[in-house]
């Protein structure tokens, strides 16, 4: 005879859970979902008093072959993307987040964030937006599913709008 496991699976004490490092992904087109994800991230970072990193990915596949081979064009695009992510970082600081970092990468947003940015920054929470109306375009919102399934940390997906908004 085998002994039955009589331990109640709900026999535990609730413990406080808090995140210590946050990463928010914003797309370079400033979609509604990116802005909402950013707003949520800065609110959380400020209330938890934790570091926040803002990341944007330069999608090199959006460049034509000639532009992608031109060092000047690529350098200009990198500067534009960095300027944009720095504007987000400044907004977070103005809101009251004390420690804010700006990060950029190049390639497919989901893969770059999961395989490069997350291992380097080591957040325990990744916050991403998800656009539901513009399915024909590839930007960070459309990569939310990939990141949620593959990131080694917790992921919160923020929608462009709430279906049940009053």
UniProtKB/TrEMBL annotation:
Among Gene3D superfamilies, the record links this protein to: HUPs (3.40.50.620)
Entry's Pfam families? Usp
Record-linked InterPro entries: Rossmann-like_a/b/a_fold, Universal_stress_UspA, UspA
**Domain (UspA) ranges:** 19-159
Looking up PANTHER family in the UniProt record yields: STRESS RESPONSE PROTEIN NHAX, UNIVERSAL STRESS PROTEIN UP12
Query: What protein family does this chain belong to?
Result: Belongs to the universal stress protein A family.
Name listed for the protein in its UniProt record: Universal stress protein UspA family protein
């Amino acid at each position: 005879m085998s002994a039955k496991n009589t331990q109640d699976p709900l026999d535990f004490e609730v413990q406080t859970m808090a995140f210590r490092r946050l990463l928010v992904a914003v797309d370079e087109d400033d979609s509604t979902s990116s802005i909402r994800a950013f707003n949520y991230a800065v609110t959380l970072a400020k209330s938890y008093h934790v570091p926040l990193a803002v990341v944007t990915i330069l999608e090199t596949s959006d460049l034509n072959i000639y532009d992608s081979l031109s060092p000047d064009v690529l350098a200009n695009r990198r500067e534009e993307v960095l300027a944009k992510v720095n504007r987000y970082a400044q907004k977070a600081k103005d809101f009251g987040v004390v420690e804010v970092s700006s990060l950029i990468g190049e390639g497919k947003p989901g893969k770059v964030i999961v395989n490069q940015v997350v291992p380097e920054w080591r957040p325990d929470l990744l916050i991403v937006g998800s656009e539901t109306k513009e399915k024909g375009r590839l930007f960070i919102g459309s990569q939310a599913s990939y990141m949620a399934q593959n990131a080694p940390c917790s992921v919160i997906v923020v929608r462009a709008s709430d279906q049940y908004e009053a």
